[in-house]
Amino acid sequence: MPAASDLLSDASIAQAYEDVRSDKSETTWLVLKYASATSDSLQLDASGAGDIAEMSERLGDDEAAYAYVRMKVGNDEYSERTKFVFVVWIGPNTRIMRKAKMSFQSGQVKQVIRTYAVEIQTSDKKELDADAVTLKLRKAMGANYDRQNSAY
């Protein structure tokens, strides 16, 4: 297995990560995909300034990918916080060997994408719905004073 530095050697990955983290950047998400069906190297597939739904459109049913998303979470304008979500996407039609390698490789990706409130490993885009992710972030934050979404 290649070292994390080899797996994530594309300099644009580190820059995109910093852009998503920065309040000065409009970039709110990034998606990393494998360079080819047989490669273990990751490359920046896309980044954007939209919401998690826009990011989810980049995830194919037959591929594995990693994503990082900045989201605003709060019950009102005064309690709004910026939170980050790390997504490990394993499309429902992803090849068996790719799935097998991902548990090891996701640890290497976390050496680059280090700061996040919630990690979501999924093959179902419904789990990446903005409301579902917001609820996970609120649970991770602790107190939830919003009675409408009090599911715990």
UniProtKB/TrEMBL annotation:
This protein's name: Actin depolymerizing protein
SUPFAM superfamilies (alphabetical): Actin depolymerizing proteins (SSF55753)
Keywords: Actin-binding, Cytoplasm, Cytoskeleton
Cellular compartments per GO CC: actin filament; cortical actin cytoskeleton; site of polarized growth
Organism: Delitschia confertaspora ATCC 74209
Sequence ranges assigned to domain ADF-H in this UniProt record: 5-138
Pfam families for the chain: Cofilin_ADF
GO molecular function terms attached to this record: actin filament binding
Protein family membership: Belongs to the actin-binding proteins ADF family. Coactosin subfamily.
Subcellular location: Cytoplasm, Cytoskeleton
Any Gene Ontology biological process: regulation of actin filament polymerization
PANTHER family xref list: ADF-H DOMAIN-CONTAINING PROTEIN, CORTACTIN AND DREBRIN
Main localization (coarse): cytoplasm
